[in-house]
Specification:
It is built from four helices and 15 strands. It is of the alpha/beta class. A seven-stranded mixed β-sheet has the order 6-5-4-9-12-14-15, with helices on both faces. A four-stranded mixed β-sheet has the order 3-2-1-13, with no helix packed on it. A two-stranded antiparallel sheet has the order 7-8. Helix 1 packs across helix 2 (about 50-70). It is globular. The protein starts with a strand and ends with a strand.
Length: about 220
């Protein structure tokens, strides 16, 4: 297989092949659903061909969490080839008493509403909306840190998700109640999207985690 370096710029997919092929550019539609499909495919390919990148990202994220000193972390159950960071987080939790993990629970799939619930070894989990595993009858937790998977993210923190708006609505609710969790878009370098235009309801994320490290959104 040929090596390739790829970058999406203003929704243009630029592929520079290293090998016998000529360098080429493929221009895609600016439609978000087309962009999502491109990025879903890219994330799936990364999970299949370069799983070590997700592992490196998780290691970087773990070191960042240790330095930050947070106690309550909102994680997620991986879906559609999203990076699995939960092994790292279980290790993080075990290092200090008082640390806890939480997972999203969908309250209303139609309205795009969710909250976080405590996730412990004894927590009963079952498939909820969209087939994603979530806690059952577990106490609500407001995380200090929200770690959110993304389909893509811009360098300045605008996150492209699955289109339901769950995280944006949750964060808006937090702010309305006076809570301001630190937000981290969990991604890979190949999912960084230059020129992603936010919609009115979008909330920019504070940090971006990839295999290159955890950096503040600029």
């Amino acid at each position: 297989m040929l090596d390739a370096t790829e970058k999406i710029t203003n929704f243009r997919l630029v592929v520079a092949w290293v090998g016998d092929e000529l360098e080429g550019t493929v221009t895609q539609s600016t439609d978000k659903e087309v962009l999502r499909k491109e990025l879903y495919d890219r994330r799936k390919r990364a999970a299949r061909e370069t799983p070590h990148k997700a592992e490196t990202m998780a290691e970087c994220l773990g070191k960042w969490l240790e330095a930050l000193g947070a106690l309550r972390v909102g994680s997620y159950m991986p879906f559609r080839s999203e990076p699995d960071i939960n092994g790292m987080l279980q290790g993080w939790k075990s290092k200090e008493e008082g640390r806890c993990l939480a997972l999203p629970v969908v309250d209303d799939a139609r309205l795009g509403m969710m909250h976080y619930a405590l996730w412990e070894e004894s927590t009963v989990l079952c498939k909820g909306a969209f087939g994603i595993v979530e806690p059952v009858h577990s106490p609500t937790v407001v995380p200090d840190i929200v770690l959110s998977p993304c389909v893509g993210v811009s360098p300045n923190g605008w996150r492209l998700g699955n289109g339901g708006g769950f995280f944006d609505r949750y964060l808006a609710q937090c702010r309305a109640s006076g809570a301001h969790p630190v937000t981290v878009a969990v991604a890979l370098d190949c999912l960084i999207v230059d020129g992603l235009q936010p919609e009115a309801h979008d909330i920019a994320f504070d940090w971006i985690a990839t295999e290159s490290g955890v950096r503040r959104a600029c």
